[in-house]
Design brief:
68% helix; two-stranded antiparallel sheet
């Protein structure tokens, strides 16, 4: 007897994000490297523009950057002004930090994000990811983002904007770049903390 019934088709479960795409530390270090490098470049450009705009602009900028408050302000400003060049590089090329740590951000079809979508993503990261780098606030936003990434395989902004983040395999070449990038981030961050402590010590010594 011939069975004329159609075979039972079982829907395959939706594929989960690969474990390699849930690595939060490379993403964090890539973000810090982009912010430190591009924020410094943008800050230098803005400083030069201000110096040539008004006579005492340079003195006022350096005065605002002094002390603990100035260091915190510089940290916040670095994250904000770095967002635009990061978005431009994401839309048309690759950021330094993401290249070092082998991270790609694309649309689901593999195409680049485009400028408007990249700008939206950077706005999400500033608010939802790092909380504008404000003390205490950034701690809660980063913990929340870390939890999203580990539990769901994607951050809130990548889900909302339909961005796919992939990581390069952890080959020896990847480890070599990642170690160099991590040392750069650690060194530049340490220098910032030392400068802040020295700015606190100067008034006390005087």
């Amino acid at each position: 007897m011939i069975d004329t019934q159609e075979p039972l088709v079982v829907a395959a479960p939706a594929p989960k994000a690969a474990a390699s795409d849930r690595r939060p530390w490379p993403r964090y270090l890539a973000r810090m490297l982009d912010t430190l490098v591009l924020g410094a470049v943008m800050g230098l450009i803005l400083g030069i523009v201000l110096v040539f705009t008004t006579d005492d602009a340079g003195e006022r900028v350096f005065a605002a950057m002094g002390g603990v408050g100035g260091t915190l302000l510089t940290n916040v400003v670095s994250f904000v002004i770095a967002a635009v060049p990061i978005a431009f590089l994401l839309a048309f090329a690759q950021t330094p930090g993401k290249w070092v740590f082998g991270i790609r951000v694309r649309n689901p079809d593999g195409s680049r994000l485009g400028l408007w979508k990249a700008l939206q993503r950077e706005a999400w990261v500033l608010v939802r990811g790092v909380g504008f780098a404000l003390p205490v606030v950034t701690l809660f936003t980063m913990i929340s983002s870390y939890t999203d990434l580990k539990d769901d395989g994607a951050t809130a902004w990548d889900r909302a904007l339909r961005c796919e983040v992939t990581h390069a395999p952890a080959t020896p070449w990847w480890w070599a770049r990642a170690i160099v990038g991590g040392v750069l981030v650690f060194g530049m961050s340490l220098w910032g903390y030392i400068d802040m402590l020295m700015s606190i010590a100067r008034p006390a010594a005087g």
